[in-house]
Amino acid sequence: MAQASVKENEVDIVIGAIHPDLTSFMNEWRSVFSRFHLIIVKDPDLKEELKIPDGFDVDVYTKSDIDRVVGSSSSISFSGYSCRYFGFLVSRKKYVISIDDDCVPAQDSTGNFVDAVAQHIFNLTTPATPFFFNTLYDPYRKGADFVRGYPFSLRSGVACALSCGLWLNLADYDAPTQALKPGERNARYVDAVLTIPTRAMMPMSGINIAFDREAVGPALFPALRLAAEGKFRWETIEDIWCGMCVKVVCDHLCLGVKSGLPYVWRKDRGDAVESLKKEWEGVKLMEHLVPFFQSVRLPRTATTAEDCVVEMAGTVKQQLGPTDPVFTRAAEAMVEWIRIWKAVGLGSPGK
Amino acid sequence: MAQASVKENEVDIVIGAIHPDLTSFMNEWRSVFSRFHLIIVKDPDLKEELKIPDGFDVDVYTKSDIDRVVGSSSSISFSGYSCRYFGFLVSRKKYVISIDDDCVPAQDSTGNFVDAVAQHIFNLTTPATPFFFNTLYDPYRKGADFVRGYPFSLRSGVACALSCGLWLNLADYDAPTQALKPGERNARYVDAVLTIPTRAMMPMSGINIAFDREAVGPALFPALRLAAEGKFRWETIEDIWCGMCVKVVCDHLCLGVKSGLPYVWRKDRGDAVESLKKEWEGVKLMEHLVPFFQSVRLPRTATTAEDCVVEMAGTVKQQLGPTDPVFTRAAEAMVEWIRIWKAVGLGSPGK
């Protein structure tokens, strides 16, 4: 991987603390995280004190910070995995990287530890190629290029706004699949990054992502909340909803989305069979969501991520609202998010 | 890789013989090729006798066979790399696999030789997922599945009609890139197969492909011929044109196209700098081609690959014809191909 020319003070690493004891998590990431400013947002449902080891440049936000900045009467909830979005809101950096607190550095196929942050920054600072698929994967990687037949006019690509990393060990399945294959682990390290083509939709997982906050920050929000949302990834789809919103925004603004490297290692936890007792609400909602996001188009007058989100919220309310009240609430949360985003952008985050 | 349940007599391996001495090529592939029926089509420009080692079930076709079946006055040329398409025409099998005669079996990342035929058959006989991108790559592979958020209604996928393999060592660059990076070799084995999303275009390379002949055979033809087309891959785009036609046909008929495994090992040959002295005709044409294929839509009345090709030929002539006579000739070749395909389908190939 070529070295990207990003200054360390242009990056925030945002961690949503779902678990109180971050000692082992932070120590395993120490050589990477200690070079950057960290934003840790404590899940407002978490009662215990956070344990954070020394030696990091870190700001911690808790429920009282959230209430102060956002107000407690908001239509947005920052509970559980959604707490990280508060970190996206108060960050002042160009790039944000966010990794789940049950993930540690992975090893590549030669046994070397992966610097996930460096790879995300590389993905975000090299162009994306959404308008034609390069069969040889990322053409900007050292030792790679565009394959024969790739139009020269498209070889400069477009700016990349979102980098979706992957995970080894515990695969990111939904509750039914995880329950059906409790012993299945992802052991295959696929050494590639690719641009998701324009107009193609994918399910973004929030486990391991990075984005250009200046370009698409307003489009990363916790809007879709399941009635029985839990503290395991397979009990949430807030990131999937958000990912499809960002993809639509990127397609509209001619920005790129990449998927693939870097990997992180997900530690085992949770009982998927127990999660199955909850309603399969997320699985059902996806059947409405995907056709919607595949067909939604934004007006030319929407020229910023803020504009796009507000436009999309209107369409969500109108087209999806009648099928399920969860979508009406999501639309309201999207409008509210943009209001808060603008307000926070004008003020000081207070840290 | 799971074993696909395809009988060996459902498969033809088609080799276009650009080089007269196939001894080393066939011997390196012996353990794979000896299980299948082979169709070798000798480049009609080749003067020397073919050398083919014993021990294979092979039918060889030469210029006289081509003249007999197609007629010498055809608007289609089977010279050079295009000779293989004659093999696609006379095959009677459901699946066709075609590999360039300068490629030998590759090794995977653990040093085992890759059975490219088995992988192609696996790709073609497991579903493709063009309507939503699975970030964990091929969900039908052993040890893999659909990622959280993937709609259950799309998990049965669609039939896969085309499998595009990749290559190690000599990367498949165009002449300018190859000349600029004469020493660059592709050493990275990416252990993945993915479905190219619907409506996304990619440059198919004919080096290492397989397809369902019953489904899309009529859409694999040599139509676009450069004025100075040579005997090196970087001097041709006949496969790129053909690949975009097949992709449009697959998208229209709701069939899938996969890219990735299997790899083959491409031996070094040729002088790219010498090729640069020829006009950059292919590179220029791609600038017209790509927007055309990205926007072309077929009528609902086109329900077979034959229908689709004839419809597309009309649009090529009308929309691209005025920009360059090479496109008018391509449109004529496409119509002619369908005429021949139907005629050959009714008769006997004579072997």
UniProtKB/TrEMBL annotation, chains A, B:
GO molecular function: UDP-arabinopyranose mutase activity
Keywords recorded for this protein, A-Z: Cell wall biogenesis/degradation, Glycoprotein, Golgi apparatus
GO biological process, one term: cell wall organization
Class of enzymatic activity (EC top level): isomerase
Cell wall biogenesis/degradation keyword on record: yes
Pfam family, one: RGP
Keyword Transcription on entry: no
GO cellular component: cytosol; Golgi apparatus; plasmodesma
The protein's Enzyme Commission number: 5.4.99.30
Location relative to the cell: Golgi apparatus
Site positions per UniProt: Required for activity: 148, 155
Residues bearing carbohydrate: 148
Domain of life: Eukaryota
Catalytic activities: UDP-beta-L-arabinofuranose = UDP-beta-L-arabinopyranose
Main location: Golgi
Functional note: Probable UDP-L-arabinose mutase involved in the biosynthesis of cell wall non-cellulosic polysaccharides.
Family the UniProt entry places it in: Belongs to the RGP family.
Name recorded for this polypeptide: UDP-arabinopyranose mutase
Record gene name: LOC115748387
